[in-house]
Design goal:
By secondary structure, this protein is an alpha/beta fold. The chain has ten helices and 13 strands.
């Protein structure tokens, strides 16, 4: 049986390709975007999250744990000693602790997804494999897509495009819709923002265009990072070059939910900004329209 590590199966999603969908979020991503909205997805391993706002510092979580102490009425965690064993979750009465990530077979994950087939059938929906990065767990992700094809439900993958070519080839042959991120066109700047160059990413996207895959372009817009008129003009030039090869382009406005998630992981967020405003969204759309691209705004 093919196994993978995921951190959530979210049902009744409406903004991750067509119709009503169930999203399977896999863990692990080779990119390290400074604004990451799902920092809990970066590591392939299960992780312990701690919500200080819920904690009563009762000390029950110290039992069976050698990595915690209570100092001045606050729980202090030595994460170098945490093995994500889950004892703190079992002992906590305030639900302040949670293990993010668990191993599951593709078959068991799909059994959960297929429970809502009636909604997929009536709305043209299906499964979306997201993350993290699905191509980082290729065998697991592709097995889910095969099962979806065999069950006659829609298939989509949300990807940063960094995976091996074979992953995209096999996924495309399975009739997958690709929600493909373009974060920045300039390779040097892309590396500064994500720690990874974008040459291979763009090569994979060009390949999907060549084979006629169903592609939706998603563009995370991060204030002060990749939303300058120069940045947007470069993306528009690329989109114009490939007009007709993708279904539509969608702006993904920045939100700061990842900041709180980073805190619960015991990490510092790499980028902190106020959530994008209606004015920000209108401004971004106007810049795209200025260059002849009618970009949608994601909810």
């Amino acid at each position: 049986m093919i196994k993978g590590t995921i951190f959530n199966i979210q049902k009744f999603c409406l903004h991750d390709s067509d119709g009503v969908r169930s999203c399977v979020f896999v863990k692990g991503c080779p990119l390290d975007c400074i604004w990451c909205h799902n920092p809990e997805s970066k590591s392939t391993k299960p992780q312990m999250t701690y919500n200080r706002d819920r904690c009563t510092a009762c000390g029950r979580c110290l039992k069976d744990c050698g990595g915690r102490s209570v100092v001045d009425g606050n729980v202090v965690i030595d994460r170098s000693k945490c093995t994500a064993c889950g004892k703190c979750v079992e002992n906590c009465l305030a639900n302040a602790n949670e293990i993010c990530g668990y191993e599951i077979t593709a078959e068991d994950a799909f059994k959960e997804v297929i429970k809502d087939k009636m909604f997929y059938d009536s709305t043209g929906g299906g499964i979306t494999v997201s993350g993290g990065e699905p191509s980082y767990q290729p065998e697991f992700s592709l097995e889910l897509l095969r099962m979806a094809r065999d069950a006659g439900i829609g298939r989509a993958v949300e990807s940063c495009g960094i995976g091996k070519r074979e992953f995209y080839k096999e996924a495309a042959e399975l009739g997958t819709t690709f929600l493909f991120d373009i974060k920045c066109m300039d390779g040097k700047k892309h590396k500064e923002l994500t720690r990874v160059d974008n040459a291979h990413i763009l090569d994979n996207l060009e390949y999907l265009f060549e084979v006629g895959a169903d592609v939706i372009i998603r563009m995370p817009m991060i204030p002060g990072c990749n939303d300058s008129e120069e940045d947007i003009a470069a993306i528009c030039q690329f989109l114009q070059k490939h007009e007709g090869k993708y279904r539509y382009a969608e702006i993904m406005p920045y939100h700061k939910l990842g900041v709180g998630k980073s805190k619960r992981l015991g990490e510092d967020a790499g980028y902190v900004h106020e959530t994008a405003t209606a004015e920000d969204k209108k401004h971004w759309q106007s810049l795209f329209e200025k260059h002849g691209i009618k970009a949608r705004i994601s909810e």
